[in-house]
Design a protein that fits this description.
Number of strands: 10
Order of helices and strands: HHHHHHEEEEEHEEEHEEHHHHH
Helix content: 25-40%
CATH superfamily of the largest domain: Transposase Inhibitor Protein From Tn5, Chain A, domain 1
Shape: elongated
Radius of gyration: 23 Å
Largest sheet: 10 strands, mixed
Number of domains: 2
CATH class of the largest domain: Alpha Beta
Number of helices: 13
Strand content: 15-25%
Structural class: alpha+beta
């Protein structure tokens, strides 16, 4: 019989346990807990995430089936679905949010040299946007969105150089995207790429006052007066490059300084886009290219909706839903960290597929393990977002 630890146990061994325990202590997560600690809850929810479990009953059945292999991951007694449900309902979801943010910061240090970003810029570049996860209003009455529809929103700040989320905020569906700008601590000289939903001149001036930069699509009804026009080369797609001031009473009060307006025609779609930015040193073509890179956050949202267990929820309370989302993202970031540490060349999608069917194998988790378990390239995989490439 092999004495090797299971793949699951080896995955969890990458986690600095003391960092997780700090998050638990911060919210007294294990206060008066005799069994099924926050760490055990995290293990069970990661198991559900990595093996694509559909329900609490599904989790319970699989855990009981694998009982003899769970000792080395820290689960030493049978766990009922009611125990999991109670923990998800009662344990503060901030524990798992804080730990997820720790993992994100760790991953960001590992992926700083990612070469997927093709623009020659020293500045950090972030795309800010949100995606909606639909919920049934009768089951999730707290998640108000529309009259007959519930939802939560994932507001994400994606680092376009590393393709990692810099920060994530989860709110109910009624929270307007622009309100999230009040919660972001803008980094000096960083560039924030935003869509039209974030056009609020007072908040944009807040980014400017923080000595950071923004690139945002302008709204069509914007009133302004031109101060000067710069020379352009229309063969590049740039239609105009202007310095303007806002003419509306409210807009001119909220953003009293000069701002740059770049008009650009896409050579492929022939669509015309108008961008606003407070960065006056970049070429107008670079402004357009920065906004084009914003599509990566849309692919990021598409990817996590396809591959993370955040559509079917194991509980209906705010705490249960937020706990499941944060642990799902944590599992995703943990695998991204392991991909980098082990120097695995496969896409994150492929790695997750291999792990899902090998979680309780007793073999060494290393680069060779992933190579030997992936014999041929799936053409469909080429269309996936290849996150975290070395």
């Amino acid at each position: 019989m092999s004495t090797e630890k299971t793949i699951f146990a080896q995955l969890l061994s990458f986690i600095p346990r003391h960092e997780f325990d700090k998050c638990v202590a911060r919210y007294n997560g294990d206060y008066r807990v005799r069994s099924f600690t926050c760490w055990e809850q995290f293990i069970v929810m990661c198991f559900a995430q990595l093996t694509y479990r559909e329900s609490l009953r599904d989790i319970e059945t699989c855990l009981h089936t694998m009982q003899s292999k769970l000792y080395h991951v820290g689960l030493r007694s049978k766990i009922a679905r009611s125990t999991i449900a109670d923990a998800n309902e009662s344990r503060d979801w901030h524990i798992f949010a804080d730990f997820c943010h720790y993992l994100i910061q760790w991953a960001e240090t590992l992926y700083q040299d990612n070469e997927s970003f093709k623009l020659d810029l020293k500045n950090a570049v972030y795309a800010v946007d949100s995606t909606t996860i639909d919920l049934c209003l009768s089951l999730f009455p707290w998640a108000k969105f529309r009259k007959n529809k519930g939802a939560v929103k994932l507001h994400t700040q994606l680092n376009l150089k590393t393709l990692l989320p810099k920060d994530i905020e989860i709110t109910d569906g009624l929270c307007h995207d622009v309100n999230i700008l009040d919660r972001i601590i803008f980094e000096l000289n960083s560039i924030y790429v935003l869509d039209r939903g974030y056009v609020d001149f007072q908040r944009l001036h807040g980014i400017h006052s923080s000595k950071a930069y923004f690139v945002v699509r302008a709204k069509k009804n914007m009133r302004f007066k031109r101060i000067l026009s710069s020379k352009i080369d229309k063969t590049t797609g740039v239609q105009c490059d202007q310095t303007i001031k806002f003419a509306g009473v409210v807009a001119s009060k909220d953003y009293p300084e000069r701002i740059r307006r770049v008009k650009y025609r896409d050579s492929q779609t022939r669509k015309v886009f108008v961008y606003l930015t407070n960065h006056f040193d970049l070429a107008p073509e670079m402004i357009a290219e920065l906004y084009k890179n914003r599509w990566k956050i849309e692919l990021f949202f598409k990817w996590i909706k396809q591959h993370l267990r955040i559509k079917a929820f194991y509980g209906t309370s705010t705490n249960a839903v937020f706990t499941q989302i944060w642990i799902a993202i944590s599992a995703y970031v943990l695998v991204a960290i392991i991909k980098k540490l082990l120097k695995v060349d496969h896409s994150l999608y492929t790695i997750l597929q291999i792990i899902s069917v090998s979680l309780f194998e007793r073999t060494q988790l290393n680069q060779d393990f992933f190579t030997s378990n992936f014999k041929s390239s799936d053409p469909a995989d080429d269309k996936q977002l290849i996150l975290f490439d070395s």
